[in-house]
Amino acid sequence: MASLRYESQVREPLVTGAKTYHDVTVDIVRPIEAAPSRLWKIGFTISVLLLMFGVYSVYREVVYGIGEWNLNKTIGWGWDITNFVWWVGIGHAGTLISAILLLFRQGWRTGVNRAAEAMTIFAVMCAGQFPIFHMGRVWMAFFVLPYPNSRGPLWVNFNSPLLWDVFAISTYFTVSLLFWYCGLLPDLATVRDRAKEKWRKNMYGVLAFGWTGSTKHWQRHEALSLVLAGLSTPLVLSVHTIVSFDFATSVIPGWHTTIFPPYFVAGAIFSGFAMVQTLLIITRKVLNLNDYITMEHIEVMNKVIVLTGSIVGIAYITELFISWYGQNPYEMAAFKNRYDLSTPYAWSYWLMMSCNVIAPQFFWFRKLRRNILFTFFMSIIVNVGMWFERFVIIVTSIYRDYLPSSWSTYYTPSLWEVGFYLGTFGLFFTCFFLFAKYFPVIAIAEIKHILKKNGESYKNTMGEEEKATVEHFKHEHAH
Amino acid sequence: MAKKKFVVGSFDDEKVLFPAVKKVRKAGYKIHDVYTPFPIHGLDQVMGLRDTSLHTAGFIYGITGTTTALTFMGWVFTKDWPLNIGGKPHFPLPAFIPITFELTVLFSAVGMVLTFCYLCQLAPFVKKHHFHARATDDLFVMVLECTSRTNEDEAKAFLESVGAKEINVQVAEDGWWLGRYAKEQKLYDTTTENSLA
Prior knowledge:
The complex is a heterodimer of chains A (479) and B (197). Chain A is built from 19 helices and no strands. Chain A is mainly alpha-helical and 479 residues long. Chain A has one domain. In chain A, helix 5 (109-134) runs antiparallel to helix 15. The longest helix of chain A has 34 residues, at 161-194. The two termini of chain A are 17 Å apart. Chain B has 197 residues and is an alpha+beta fold. Chain B has two domains: 3-51 and 130-196, Alpha-Beta Plaits (2-Layer Sandwich); 54-119, no CATH class. Chain B has six helices and six strands, in the order βαβαααββαββα. Chain B has helices at residues 14-26, 43-47, 54-80, 93-119, 152-161, 190-196; strands spanning 3-11, 30-35, 126-128, 140-145, 165-173, 176-178. A four-stranded antiparallel beta sheet of chain B has the order 2-4-1-5, covered by helices on one side. Chain B has a two-stranded antiparallel ribbon with strand order 3-6.
């Protein structure tokens, strides 16, 4: 019998180095079994400090009210909702990689999906903080849930996009978490079965839910992954669509646009992939995983970045064109407030344009796509740009409303507003550092699954398959 | 909670495993299970396992979510508290679509995961017998169940003839239990534990 799987030699290997199944286990579990490095401790401490500053900032806001932020009557949504949309957007890459790319049978997703999914979950956790604390009286946050209450019962408004958001974000978080954890079960069992110490055996024993690797269980696991991927695919598109409805269903010029859903989804994937690049370039270096997160992975993700960046660019230009083509004076004024350099916020619009539309075009060059430092730099640029996209959409559309006397010429965030944002970075990186230390950052079982097809050492054996006669090849490999 | 006797053989290559499973089945041995570190496509068919119906369960959970969302929102806005929101209809179907969709996905995903955990008997603190610690690392562990008609030595010899390594006989708990791992399994290094204490 020839090899069980066939993959053309033309494709680059997804796992470099001559690895056996055991090597894969050892390489990926090593950081979990080793003592935390100095770099990890420093990073973790900084993250926890940031988180604590964030907690204090939120404490100020809860005790003294929304007045602690520099929002005003005209600019009612500022940094908080900008940060919310930004984090939710970042949280889109993980599920896209794990769900859509699973359905498209993209083998390269196996190297990056675990970390990307973790990133998704942490990003959604950060995102959720902003609308909740923006409520002001946060202890009444549960009012958004439709439960039989003593006020009538007075129900929530199911027609409101803000309520759709509640359902969308909480569903997205739950489903992403379940998907991620189901994938983790077999790998946690691997860590458990290698454990030498009693506490490690017990801890991973609890986390692994008693996974044994039975064939029947694998069969169900595969079915579950496939259906969850199928469910997550429309889910990931729906979430940012619904977030965009927060704006699109209003009557504010600059927000009232039908292009928003696809434009937001493309932007979300764009910023999500940039964040994945930022995290994975550091992770592969620190945890020494260059054999699993290869240049090929980085290049492929850069291709996604240039594609989605260009989609976002087309959306920006379409918006401008339609505001002129529609000849609605209010709509035209809203866009003049963005692009006209004499207005107070034009700088943010042009910063957004250069970071999101112009900068990613460098990725048309293969040399630059395969340059680690440049990719890292670009991933930061893209995320700065995507933050400003949300800022531009939110603030420049509302800072000059219909009544010129209430125009708010400039909006500067207060220390506690910035602190809240920094605090979510603290939360995000605290979670990510813990994840990188205690969980397998790469899906071990999935890598083993593709090893004999896409691993470098097995790649060479495919030549023999290609020499075989058509009949033999068809017999062995056709579906 | 019944203990049974098993003949265990490990394989280090899936290419050897496939024909071995076929031969073992043909020879009439009862395969208890094959434990693998990653999903091996086609192994379930070779072992004669039937397809899972988890998809069907997922579909049923999904439509439960759809109907729950639609009937609940419809009941609230038409029967329980018909609120006039800007003169809009009381049953605005397009406006109900986002929540209906989200609940469909939520019910389906949560239901399927719970069903999966129930079927595979997976839960925190659940303990099961591990026939080989490397079954989650790099070995494919075939476990034959000894029935009253099984000759252990013959089964061991047969496993060896089809390419298995590290063949042994184990008496083990069939299902799951709560509590501790069996001491004699020596799943973790007791010497280091003592030295720490």
